[in-house]
Amino acid sequence: MTAPPLAADPVLAAFAEEVGATDAVAVEGARTRWAVGGAVADGTRLVKAPTGIVRHEAEEMIVCVRAGTPVAELAATLAQRGQRCALPDHGGTVGGAIAAGENDLLVLGCGTLRASVLEVRYVSAEGRLIRGGGPTVKNVTGFDLPRIMVGALGTLGLIAEVILRTNPLPATSLWAMATDADPFAARDALLRPAAVLWDGTHTWVNLEGHAPDVTAQLALLGTVGRFAEVQGPPPLPACRWSLAPGELRHLHAQQLGGFVASVGVGLVHAERPQPSRALPPTVAALSARVKSNFDPTGRLNPGRNPGAR
Ligand SMILES: Cc1cc2nc3c(=O)[nH]c(=O)nc-3n(C[C@H](O)[C@H](O)[C@H](O)COP(=O)(O)OP(=O)(O)OC[C@H]3O[C@@H](n4cnc5c(N)ncnc54)[C@H](O)[C@@H]3O)c2cc1C
To answer: Is there an atom of ligand 1 within 6 Å of 103 CB?
Structure first.
């Protein structure tokens, strides 16, 4: 069955009309990551993405949601049917979380943000409503637009609505911490931890699932160190370093200040900002080509650089 044209939805059509096709424009979410990628150029017109949950098909494990919806509202709606999604709730909007492209702390358990965006509906630089991806794998042809929009900071298109994969809320979720454990051994010992964090001394592990499985995993952790249950993860320093997961073994506080590393992920929360690393020339050239194809006049979120964070 052919999907109806997006412009038949009056909410999406009104958003596309507001975005228009000529001047510099950016979406303003809740501004929780407003400074990421640099300041938006002076004179850029700010618009708000539409809000509301269009439909939650719990049995299909998908939700269709307007991009301006607060992540907290989406999480509360999904929880009513025992589900969650990969979007972290830190006061932002669905579109902002996707545009910022940061994974949840429990990414090993709830999956990556990029993999959870099944379909994206956005307004292009020409002011057209475009659909990319699809809720079932069979429907997907052409470019993988949902993935390219994740982390693009709204420089390739203004996200109006998305279809996200959901997953079950775990029956049990607990944090355990040890001061004598090798975090890499802990990660290897466990079947599927939702998070393994390490600050150079302490190791925190989040276990989730059915209670007997969590108990069994906790017992396994006992072979790695003296773990005790704690309330939650440690406070996370503000800067984010993106490293290859293998590099985490060689971290030292001199470089990062205090840090909390996500073992198995490659993300490090650190006190000091990550020194900027130039993109390899081939990647830089590819990025520039993608940007000029999607936004030839540079009108979408001018000033922002998704590569500079
Ligand atoms: C204290 C704190 C802790 C956090 N911790 C984590 C964490 O542990 N894990 C994690 O994954 N994330 C974390 N986040 C990030 C969080 O996911 C984002 O801050 C948030 O969801 C961004 O949403 P926003 O509506 O505030 O976006 P804004 O700050 O308003 O916008 C961010 C950028 O996205 C663009 N944008 C916004 N909406 C759209 C749209 N519809 N279409 C196109 N572009 C758009 C904006 O133009 C801007 O460039 C944390 C944030 C904070 C403040």
So the answer is: yes
Work out the pLDDT band at 143, boundaries 50, 70, 90: low
> b/e map of 209-224 (b: 16 or more CB within 10 Å)?
beeebbeebbeebeeb
pLDDT score recorded for residue 142: 62
Domain span at residue 61 reads 6-168
Q: Is the CB of 29 under 6 A from ligand 1?
A: yes
| pLDDT tens sequence across 208-245 | 999 999 999 999 999 999 999 999 999 999 888 888 87
Look up residue 209 and give its amino acid: G
Are residues 200 and 129 part of one domain? no
Residue 33 has pLDDT above 80, yes or no: yes
| Gap between the Cα atoms of 103 and 86, Å rounded | 7
CA distance linking residue 279 with residue 12, whole number of Å: 36
Please check whether residues 143 and 185 belong to one and the same domain.
Answer: no
Nearest to 232 by CA among 287, 192, 177: 177
What is the pTM (predicted TM-score) of this model?
0.91
Most confident of 3-17, 63-77, 180-194, 265-279: 63-77
Q: Which residues of 54-63 are buried (b: 16+ CB within 10 A; e: fewer)?
A: eebeeeebbb
What is d(CA 266, CA 307) in angstroms, rounded to the nearest whole number? 17
CA of 71 to the centre of ligand 1 (A): 10
CA of 219 to the centre of ligand 1 (A): 37
